[in-house]
Design goal:
The radius of gyration is 16 Å and the shape is globular. About 40% of the residues are buried. The chain has about 160 residues and is of the alpha+beta class. The chain is built from five helices and five strands; from the N terminus they run ββαβββαααα. The N and C termini lie far apart (about 40 Å). The structure holds FE2/S2 (inorganic) cluster (2 copies). One FE2/S2 (inorganic) cluster binds next to loops.
Amino acid sequence: MAHEGPAASTVTVNGRQRELVTEPDTPLLYVLRNHLGLKGTRFGCGLGVCGACLVLVDGDPAYSCDTPMWSVEGKDVTTVEGLGVDGQPHAVARSIVAQQAAQCGYCMSGIVVRAAHLLAGNPDPSEADVRAALDDNLCRCGSHNRVVRAVLAAAAEIRGGTP
Ligand code: FES
Ligand code: FES
């Protein structure tokens, strides 16, 4: 879709409605980081292939580097900051920290978003389910094995009643 000049859009981000004026083709990632200060969402490849910028749009995973503002008008965006409950990070994020699963951590926001989406739809995933879900989230530090263990531990915690 072709657009010319800045335009206003209304987007709900982490439960809060925002009125934003941007070029319609501006990637959502830039708006999250630079307009709204939500730095958890990372710029990796900028091409929709690494997963560092993953967010949820209306509950579905979306690469925010490859999501123009015009396409999220009226939608609900959830970033890694918005996944937690009662002021705590999401159980997956806490488990990754507790198990020291990350190395540099750059890829982890996208991984937490992806894993949270998995567990929302499948609270008792197998290891293969977790590996398949995370397959498109690249980690150049090679942390995936520890991350998979952390996600499975988080799933068990959530099933046990931990938020
Ligand atoms: S930065 Fe968006 S997929 Fe890599
Ligand atoms: S922990 Fe460094 S890229 Fe994943």
